[in-house]
Write a structure and sequence with these properties.
With 321 residues, the protein is an alpha/beta fold. The chain has helices spanning 2-22, 39-55, 70-78, 92-100, 136-145, 160-172, 185-194, 204-212, 260-275, 277-283, 295-316, and strands spanning 28-32, 59-63, 86-91, 112-127, 151-154, 177-180, 199-203, 217-221, 247-255, 289-290. The protein has 11 helices and 10 strands.
């Protein structure tokens, strides 16, 4: 009898290994919790395309938007099978949300497993061309002359771009009007290009094409060093606000109960994708840098981000219901 049970256990273990080795055998869905055209959506679609090529299997992107990314994240955390066939791309907005929102129906660390970081990239502060400013210093000077009159948008309440501007306001000692959007960068971009709002901090994917087309003017980037994607644009730090540093990140998550062998398979394939020349070439113009870390280190990174942003939220006074 003991031998029978041992044989069964070995059989199950081998079956699990084969399952992971063959994964995926059908369509995989990746949930992008923000609207089409925004940073999260762009990175999700790049990731999906590369994984589809590697797996020789369809990888479909599903935009489940709303509640500053919480609807899509809750869907994957609570409502899908933990089999690796429905994944989530989440990032800094979700780490911020842990302390920003009073009620969240899922736990970022307990209900989801951090599988692999994709990339990190800075934001860029852009203005409508009608704005009479060409640098962050000039923007600060103008805002001091017109307190509360200049409107800046953010793709989602509590997003890194929102808090980047709140930090900018605090460090510069200025007052500007915040206009949050519920659907992500796509909706905000329309109003910014139309002049309904004057400026915003935006991720490189949606911003760079508009900057190069002359439809937006770049004032400063949020990283501590200049970006190769916009080498002529100074950092906020070198523009006078010393120590200013905000960067976004995005990674792949799955339901917490996803089998470890499937997590390992997806992680290994993600690392291979990120190391490929094609992915690097696609990320570079966006100002993004691929991120390489183990799943365990990625989980530690997510925890550290939750702690870091909790301090920023408290200092800025930002809060959302």
């Amino acid at each position: 009898m003991k031998m029978t049970w041992i044989g069964c256990a070995v059989g199950v273990a081998l079956a699990g290994g084969v399952h992971a080795q063959d994964f995926p055998t059908r369509v995989v869905r990746i949930v992008a919790p923000f609207s089409a055209g925004g940073s999260t959506d762009v990175l999700t679609r790049l990731t999906a395309a590369q994984l589809s090529n590697r797996w020789n299997q369809s990888v479909v992107v599903e935009n489940r938007v709303g509640a500053s990314g919480r609807i899509g994240a809750e869907h994957v955390a609570k409502n899908v099978p933990a089999d690796g066939y429905t994944l989530l791309v989440a990032g800094a907005p979700h780490a911020i949300g842990v302390s920003l929102f009073r009620k969240i129906n899922y736990d970022l660390e307990k209900d989801l497993v951090a599988i692999a970081n994709i990339a990190t990239f800075p934001s860029v502060i852009v203005v409508h061309p009608s704005m009479p400013v060409r640098s962050a210093r000039e923007l600060i000077a103008l805002a001091k002359k017109h307190p509360g009159e200049i409107a800046f948008g953010s793709p989602n309440l509590g997003s890194p771009n929102h808090l980047a501007m709140e930090l900018f306001k605090t460090m510069a000692g200025i007052d500007m009007l915040h206009v949050p959007y519920k659907g992500g960068s796509g909706q905000m971009m329309g109003d910014l290009l139309g002049g309904q709002i004057q400026l915003a901090s935006m991720g490189f994917p949606p911003a760079v094409p508009q900057i190069k087309a002359g439809k937006l003017r770049a004032l400063a980037v949020s990283s501590l060093k200049r970006s190769p994607a916009l080498p002529d644009v100074p950092t906020v730090d070198e523009s006078g606000l010393r120590g200013f540093h905000v960067e976004s990140w995005y990674g792949v998550f799955g339901p917490a109960a996803t089998p470890k062998n499937i997590v390992s398979k997806i992680h290994a394939d993600m690392q291979a994708v990120l190391a490929g020349d094609e992915m690097k070439a696609r990320l570079a113009p966006l100002g993004a840098e691929p991120s390489f870390m183990s799943s365990a280190d990625f989980a530690k990174f997510v925890h550290a981000e939750i702690v870091k942003w909790a301090k920023v939220v408290k200092t800025s006074g930002a809060r959302a219901d």
